[in-house]
Amino acid sequence: MQQHVVKMASFLMLVVFLILAVFLVAQAAVTVDCGKNSMSVRWTEANSQVDPSLLRMGGCSPTQVSVKPQGSEAIFYAEFGDCDIRRMVTINELIYETEITSTMLSKAQPIYYPVTCKYERPEDWALPLYDPLLFHIHGQGDLTFRMALMKDDFSGVATTTTFSLGTTIPIAASVDQKTHQPLILLLDECVASTTPELGPDSQIYPLITNMGCLVDSKKTNSRFLPRNQLSEIRLSLQAFKFAIGQDVYLHCMLVAWDPRDLGRSKKACQYDRNSSRWVLFDDPSQSSLCSCCDTNCQGRKKREITADSFTSTSVLGPLVIIEN
Predict the structure, then answer these.
(1) Cα(233)–Cα(228) distance, integer angstroms
(2) Which residue range or ranges hold the ZP domain (predicted)?
């Protein structure tokens, strides 16, 4: 009976959240202009209930905002591949989608509005080709994210993409922060898949989940390696049994964050099988932040929810894992 009451309460909270979100969207006008390789989105609201600078499209801030007596406006512009814009491929369509959301607003009312651009799939369209060794992507602002397969000693980019089962797969990721304050680079999520595009039917093998938990370290020798600097992270994966002999792609979400403000939703945790516990890689004295890795990690501090973070999605592959 008690479990039924808890479930009912959770359901009612979700309903209230959605009602509030729909109410706020109803007060605003949203127009989407789908370009050839980009989208432009305009949010306008007559009653100025929302501070437009607090709106986000995917992970991006508005490119232009204005607040006037007659109302507020936020304009977003993003090329496909930026701002966490996801691509879905169907038999007949190419679909690019993201959403407009809000950080913590003054009246604590949530915003959630899906944004979609749909195109007829060209007859000659094919999956994009990835550099199997190096993936380079521009992130938000003037940050640049990089991710690559490396040689065993990390002296340079790998010369092969074929790995024997049980051997190590060295990976390095970095962020060039230029004029930004010092940032720490984290891997929020990584999965292996047999496809370069993730979709509802994609087969996946989880490597890092739950906002920075290296779940593969609980059953293999996969681990984070010591940093040379905060803006770089190194990962040694043990070649796994998933999709033996097939093309495998590694899909990872990179996050650049304030190193003074690690939390349950911004962390790098790995499992220490000697002590049978999760350990915070960058500061073992704060390993309590990793105690949620076997359950569900949610940010507790207000800053974890409201502060800006800089994110980028990267894909490495195809690589191939073979039997010895």
Answers:
(1) 8
(2) 33-276
> CATH code at 30?
2.60.40.3210
Q: How far apart are CA 154 and CA 169, in angstroms?
A: 11
Nearest to 215 by CA among 310, 295, 151: 295
| CA–CA gap between residue 256 and residue 163 (Å, rounded) | 29
Residue that is last in its domain, among 88, 120, 152: 120
For residue 134, is pLDDT > 60? no
Let me know whether 208 and 288 are in one domain. Answer: yes
Cβ atoms of 163 and 247 within 8 Å: the answer is: no
For 210-227, what is each residue's pLDDT tens digit? 999 999 999 999 999 999
50: left (phi over 0), alpha (psi -120 to 50) or beta: beta
* CA 58/CA 126 separation, integer angstroms: 26
Range of the domain at 302: 134-322
- Relative to beta strand 213-214, strand 269-272 is parallel
pTM of the predicted protein model: 0.60
- What φ, ψ does residue 125 adopt, rounded to 5°? -70, 140
Asked if 254 contacts 188 with a C-beta cutoff of 8 angstroms, the reply is: yes
In the block, which residue shows the tokens 């569900």?
296
- Six-digit token pair at 101? 């959301």
Same domain? 110 vs 190: no
Whether the bond between 226 and the residue before it is cis, its omega within 30 degrees of 0, is no
Quote the CA–CA distance of 136 and 139 in Å, as a whole number: 10
